Amino acid sequence: MTQPPEITRKSWLMVATLGIVWGSTFLVIEMALEGITPFWLAAARISFASILMTAIWASRGFALFTDRTSQNWPNLIIIGALSSAVPFILLSWGQQFVTSGFAGVSMAAVALIVLPLAHFLVPGEHLTLRKVFGFLLGFVGVVLLIGGQAFESTGASMEIFGRFACLGAACCYALSSVLVRRLPPIDPIGLATILLIIGAFIVLPAAWIAEGPPPIPTGRTLLILAILGLVPTAAANLLRVLVIRSAGPTFMSLTNYLVPVWSVLLGALILNEPLPPSLLLALGLILAGVGLSQYGALKRLFAAG
After folding, report:
1. What is the pLDDT of residues 81-100, one digit of tens each?
2. Where in this chain does the record put each EamA domain (predicted)?
3. What residue spans define the domains of the chain?
4. Largest Cα–Cα distance in the chain?
5. What are the pLDDT digits (tens) for 115-156?
6. Element (H, E) at 171
């Protein structure tokens, strides 16, 4: 896309929704892992989501590229791999050797990785000192929220490779966001569906190679997997595409600062986990970072009434 990003009230609402949905997903994943292994969990999520989205896409006549002369299937395959399959695999493998805190910080780093990529590859996404400082401020807030465990060592012999895997997953998410924005005119539902289908074709054989045949899940586990496929995978993936295509990858990356906040708050409300003493300071830094980095968009939003 060549037009500059358009950040509206709808954009803010979609990003806020994604923060809540993905922030609550960690709780549901913990429940799912009681009855299924990590790779097959990822495969099941993407498979459920791709089946659901394919049914919706079929009802729309399988619309995809709005301009047949600008079809770019090689790019779609690359984006499909980078959007879900490859980062899911990297995180599933890497988290065996690193702390959950480091994995969380790696995902927050997506916003910092997007900044230079978008500056050079996306029209209208210029890198400014205010934007850089705002994103750095938000990142510090996330690190403070997660706490000292973010940089603790597990002592695992493969820890360094696990950390590279987590950072590699962050790079995948960042690059896929930029590439989605650069696609020619395309139907968002068709795009979201194609990306999930490509991801499923990659993750399913990877799960079989890594963990053998799929375990036989209980009815409860199947229900949880269906919920994971429906809400944080299918619906959230569609919202992600809509935000990137309209407001741009830099704005979309703000979600990575909101997810840890909701994860901590929901963990305290639902699982009675203790709130970190630094919560208010961390929240203040994150909100200040978001406000500073998006000052222009917020100013236009309030001016519009």
Report:
1. 999 889 988 888 888 888 87
2. 13-146, 162-292
3. 9-303
4. 57
5. 999 999 998 888 889 999 999 999 999 989 887 667 778 788
6. helix 159-182
